């Protein structure tokens, strides 16, 4: 005995849905990423920043390594 195979019909072009993101779904994460990146690269602008964080050392080292390449 074999079981019947159920297949779904493919949607036609008229049945297909177009999903669009609102403008803020891309703008807000981008703004948050840029803000955090600026704070990491320039911690003196942050109110609670004291000392020299390890991330700044890492970014400076990466910049030096990239500057060495011909």
Gist of the model:
This protein is mainly α. It has two helices and no strands.
Q: Could you explain how this protein is built, in words?
A:
This protein has 70 residues and is mainly α. It has helices at 24-41, 54-68. The chain is elongated and about 70 Å long.
Uncertain residue segments? none
Question: What would you call the shape?
Answer: elongated
Number of helices: 2
Structural class of the helices, strands and pairings?
A: mainly alpha
C-alpha termini separation:
71 Å
User: In sequence order, what are the helices and strands, one letter per element?
Assistant: HH
Q: Percent of residues in beta strands?
A: under 5%
Overall mean pLDDT stands at 78
Helix fraction bin: 40-55%
Count of individual beta strands = 0
Major β-sheet, in short? none
Question: How would you name the oligomeric state of the polypeptide chains in this document?
Answer: single chain
- Rg, rounded, reads 25 Å
Reconstruct the topology from this structure.
Blueprint (H helix, E strand, L loop, with lengths): L23 H18 L12 H15 L2
């Amino acid at each position: 005995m074999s079981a019947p195979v159920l297949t779904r019909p493919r949607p036609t072009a008229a049945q297909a849905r177009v999903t669009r993101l609102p403008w803020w779904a891309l703008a807000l994460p981008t703004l948050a990423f840029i803000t955090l990146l600026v704070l990491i690269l320039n911690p003196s602008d942050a109110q609670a920043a004291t000392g020299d964080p390890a991330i700044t050392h890492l970014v400076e080292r990466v910049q030096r390594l990239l500057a060495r390449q011909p």
